[in-house]
Design brief:
By secondary structure, the protein is an alpha/beta fold. The chain has ten helices and ten strands. It is globular and about 50 Å long.
């Protein structure tokens, strides 16, 4: 487990190019144990690219990525997952013919740092489905679910692997206000009940600024601000680049 003073995730000087396009430019950030950190910015700012670098889907051109003080940049995605990094995609890539339970079992078996036996696997599947409130859908093929239900299955799959760091990419896209409130409550439960640190990419500003303890803002691949939500939301560079309006502290808290 992480020492209290040791960040779960530490990125230093991450730069990533695609041809002549610099998608990430000298990005440095940390995520502490059990932290809930928001990663925001305009479309094309480099948010998903950064998550891809952290989880092993993309290799940085320069810089370092450490998980619990151990370097992981350049490791294949399956090895990063085994080290304790879970990823939830905005558009889940699931096998439509597998049932909800079978999908989550894949996460428990192949996404865990250990090698759980049958009883332990079953328990992890049950706990993950209970947390996302899909136990009554466990026998249903994933292909029959709507987009948001698939995202919850994807979250349960990641949780079944017992991640120490969870990367969440726009879990709330397309949701109504009631559904957004349920999802923010769910992320808080994940942190509180599982002890996982969460790095959360989101465009629903009221949700993310009212939920996280710290925000990191990317623009054109570079970090332009980071800190408490109320402070970052009033930063002139952030307002100009992304928010377009100065969020008052009361609005952020709400």
């Amino acid at each position: 487990m992480s020492r209290p003073s040791e960040p779960v995730l530490r990125c230093r000087g991450i730069t990533k190019r695609f041809g002549g396009v610099v998608a990430l430019r000298d990005v440095t950030l940390e995520v502490e144990p059990r932290a809930l950190v928001g990663l925001i910015g305009p479309n094309g700012a480099g948010k998903s690219t950064l998550l891809n670098v952290v989880c092993g889907l993309s290799r940085p051109d320069s810089g370092t990525v450490e998980l619990d003080g151990r370097p992981i940049a350049g490791l294949p995605a399956h090895a990063v997952t085994r080290r304790g990094v879970g990823r939830v995609l905005q558009i889940p890539r699931l096998f439509p013919t597998l049932t909800v339970e079978e999908t989550v079992r894949v996460g428990a078996l192949f996404g865990s740092p250990d090698s759980p036996g049958p009883a332990q696997t079953a328990r992890r599947v049950d706990e993950a489905l209970e947390l996302v409130e899909l136990r009554d859908r466990r026998a249903e093929p994933v292909g029959r679910l709507n987009t948001q239900e698939k995202r919850l299955v994807d979250l349960a799959r990641a949780l079944a692997g017992q991640p120490k760091l969870l990367l969440v990419d726009e879990l709330m896209s397309g949701l109504n206000p009631v559904e957004i409130q349920r999802c923010t409550a769910l992320l808080r439960r994940v942190r509180e009940e599982r002890g996982a640190a969460i790095l959360w990419v989101e465009h629903v500003m009221d949700a993310v600024l009212g939920t996280v303890e710290r925000v990191v803002v990317l623009d054109h691949g570079a970090v332009i601000a980071q800190g408490p939500p109320a402070q970052v939301a009033k930063d002139p560079a952030v307002v100009e680049a992304y928010l377009g309006v100065d969020f008052h502290a009361a609005e952020v808290a709400g």
